[in-house]
Amino acid sequence: MDTLCFTKKSGEANILKLTILWDFCVWWYWGPLLHIKNGNLPRGVRKIESQIEREDLEKLKHTLPAYSKQSLLDSLRNAVALYRQLRVVLFDDTVILHKNTEKKVMDYFDKIESQK
């Protein structure tokens, strides 16, 4: 996911565009990853409520924004936390994590979030 693009747009406060983008991310990123974690085929969010653990569903719900800048920022922060948890479970040692890049993106995110 292009978190840097998302945080840049969050700084511009284009709420409708970001809400639509975020729906795409839930459908194509978080849903399939949660399906894989729960032993299912990675098929978006189809039937996800009945096919993943309740705890995972609650985490996914926390990535869904309401129509406000703060809600979008909260959703992004929750999605980052979810992704960090999922990568521990789903990725093996062959996946290279770019911690330095991740830190720079999150620092930028913090900067945008502080500009409320």
Question: Briefly, what is this?
Answer:
The protein is mainly alpha-helical and 116 residues long.
Written description of the protein model:
By secondary structure, the chain is mainly α. It has one domain: Nucleotidyltransferases  domain 2 (Four Helix Bundle (Hemerythrin (Met), subunit A), Up-down Bundle). 71% of the residues lie in helices and 0% in strands. The protein contains six helices and no strands. The chain has helices spanning 3-12, 15-37, 48-51, 54-61, 69-90, 99-113. The longest helix is centred in the first third of the chain and has 23 residues, at 15-37. The protein is globular. The mean pLDDT is 87.
Shape: globular
Q: Characterize the main sheet.
A: none
Order of helices and strands: HHHHHH
The chain-level structural class is: mainly alpha
What is the tally of helical segments? 6
| Total domains | 1
The CATH superfamily title: Nucleotidyltransferases  domain 2
Helix content: over 70%
Topology:
Layout: H1 3-12, H2 15-37, H3 48-51, H4 54-61, H5 69-90, H6 99-113
Index terms:
single chain; 116 residues; mainly alpha; Four Helix Bundle (Hemerythrin (Met), subunit A); 0% strand; globular
